[in-house]
């Protein structure tokens, strides 16, 4: 009897659980489009992937809410598309989707994007945005038309830009940004409003606006701050180079790298240096890695203790010649001057062991052991190294 009670309790729990789980309806996109036309409703599409944690959280928290689903079904025709399946792939490409989850509110008559959203949201925020998508004066076609009718009007531009960026990545904001900025003279660019527009919408390193920022940093710092100007410069170099590093596109990386280097600022040189090392590591070009670090480590990352130790770890694993290893030892020693640490002392012990300097290896291993004892940390790694050194 007790077994039957537990069994039925388990079945009941599973039934309730399954009722609270959102299962996307696999309605074909063309069918949903035609239904939306016939019913005179916009089309709502969620683009997701099974491996996307933010997508799964939205399904669990937002779309399992009957009120949300009821609202969507009342006001839209809905389709849910996995970007790893045929229709999902096509829609991802058609609407240039780069983030997940993405929510598209589409005019079914011409497949124009009325409103777009991206990322994980809580139910109240999603419902607010879904209501906005039904408001003609908050939809992208209306805002775009209003902006283009008076492209020098910063208020109309911001209304369009702020809605556009809810569903688009920064690179997609560039065309309308330049339409507005082309109405502004060089002198007019230096204002708090135009700085906000440059900071949010300019992504082209060769653009007139960015080049003007580079040449007039003090003026822009006066209306924003030097820190914000620095962040923008670093951001635009990051946006220029990161895609080539991520895709291991060495040919185009080195072409664009020269453009970034032409800025001739230490902060951008440091960023390029780090991208160089990342690309060298991922392509296992250890001679190039060594060349770049020997030339620039002391100049560009001398006050970054963590990065100096990272370089030392790479030398320990992949660099063989003694003179270069000695140089890496000097970098790791400097990292300890900046921030004495267990891992830094252990790394120095291993580097000295690699160049067969047992005396110095023992010294730094003992220092690492002392730190581990003081902090009550697990000392297995250093104990193993000390045992190995004492048997040599």
Question: What attributes characterize this protein structure?
Answer:
single chain, 4 strands, Serine Threonine Protein Phosphatase 5, Tetratricopeptide repeat, 392 residues, alpha+beta, 4-stranded mixed sheet, Glutaredoxin
Distance between the termini: 70 Å
Mean pLDDT: 92
Q: Measured on Cα atoms, how large is the radius of gyration? A: 28 Å
Our count of helices gives 22
Note poorly predicted spans.
Answer: 1-19
Strand content: 5-15%
Q: Describe the strand arrangement of the main beta sheet, using strand numbers.
A: 2-1-3-4
User: Sheet with the most strands?
Assistant: 4 strands, mixed
Helix percentage range: 55-70%
Q: Mind telling me the CATH class of one domain?
A: Alpha Beta
Number of strands: 4
What is the CATH topology descriptor of one domain? Answer: Glutaredoxin
Assign the CATH superfamily of one domain: Glutaredoxin
So what's the overall shape? globular
CATH architecture of one domain: 3-Layer(aba) Sandwich
Going by helix content, strand content and strand pairing, the class is alpha+beta
SSE order, one letter for each helix or strand: HHEHHEHEEHHHHHHHHHHHHHHHHH
In short:
The chain has 392 residues and is of the alpha+beta class. It has 22 helices and four strands. A four-stranded mixed beta sheet has the order 2-1-3-4, with helices on both faces.
Provide an overview of this structure.
The chain is α+β, with helices and mostly antiparallel strands. Among the domains are: 22-134, Glutaredoxin; 284-392, Serine Threonine Protein Phosphatase 5, Tetratricopeptide repeat (Alpha Horseshoe). The chain is built from 22 helices and 4 strands. The protein has helices at 2-19, 29-39, 53-61, 66-75, 86-94, 123-132, 140-149, 154-164, 174-181, 186-189, 192-201, 208-215, 217-223, 226-246, 250-261, 266-283, 286-300, 305-318, 322-338, 342-354, 358-375, 380-390, and strands at 43-48, 77-82, 102-107, 112-118. It has a 4-stranded mixed beta sheet, with helices on both faces. Strand 3 and strand 4 form a beta hairpin. The longest helix is centred in the middle third of the chain and has 21 residues, at 226-246. The termini are far apart.
